[in-house]
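Ops channel
N.P.: pipeline sanity check, posting one input/output pair.
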């Protein structure tokens, strides 16, 4: 197996970055900063970051088959137009619950955009802490970012067996996705919100975007929302 390399490719100081999605057409990584109300797009070639600021915490972003993106903003499903930085509401849920919001969202193989406030997960080992965002590789195995665990773990979804652990230099890992030219790179988001000054000194890259290479497996392209 090739040696694993971990690097912070974007020291963005996000308060809580989440929902990484690789956009093959632009060689870019999309992600959100939930409390900062931002959708971000990092160009892996130019290394530049462009942002769209919205009016509520944004918990996920996805590619859209007809062009542009979709995002979960507060309790709304929205179409996001990057050129004019506008968000058009497609649907709203939980209108009577003012303090509620979506927690995460993903598009399934049928092109449907799912989002929810709660998740059920497998039983974790003590040091793995809280399971957060996840993705699948081309072999059908599950990769899970462990919040407060500072790692991503590879699981067999049929047996629940842990197959691999990759530790990162930050504790609050939030999500992961595969990307790059052949989907052999993994991108990991993390958070810095809630960390005290001493912890931030120990983890200066907290809130950045990390790239992991040498995993020996590839991912699959993300699904597009069909609406």
């Amino acid at each position: 197996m090739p040696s694993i390399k971990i690097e912070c490719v974007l020291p963005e100081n996000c308060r809580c970055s989440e929902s990484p999605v690789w956009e093959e057409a632009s060689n870019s990584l999309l992600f959100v900063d939930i409390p900062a109300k931002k959708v971000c797009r990092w160009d892996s070639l130019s290394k530049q970051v462009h942002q769209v600021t919205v009016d509520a915490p944004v918990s996920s972003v996805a590619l859209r088959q007809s062009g542009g993106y979709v995002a979960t903003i507060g309790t709304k499903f929205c179409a996001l137009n990057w050129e004019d930085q506008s968000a058009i509401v497609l649907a709203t849920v939980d209108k009577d619950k003012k303090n509620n919001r979506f927690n995460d969202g993903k598009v399934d193989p049928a092109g449907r955009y799912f989002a929810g406030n709660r998740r059920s997960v497998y039983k974790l080992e003590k040091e793995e802490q809280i399971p957060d965002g996840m993705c699948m590789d081309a072999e059908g195995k599950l990769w899970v970012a462990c919040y407060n665990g500072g790692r991503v773990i590879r699981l067999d979804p049929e047996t629940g067996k842990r197959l691999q652990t990759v530790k990162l230099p930050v504790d609050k890992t939030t999500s992961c996705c595969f990307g790059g030219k052949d989907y052999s790179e993994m991108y990991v988001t993390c958070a810095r919100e809630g960390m005290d000054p001493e912890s931030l000194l120990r983890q200066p890259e907290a809130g950045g975007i990390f790239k992991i290479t040498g995993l020996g497996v590839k991912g699959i392209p993300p699904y597009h929302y069909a609406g």
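N.P.: looks fine end to end. The radius of gyration is 17 Å.
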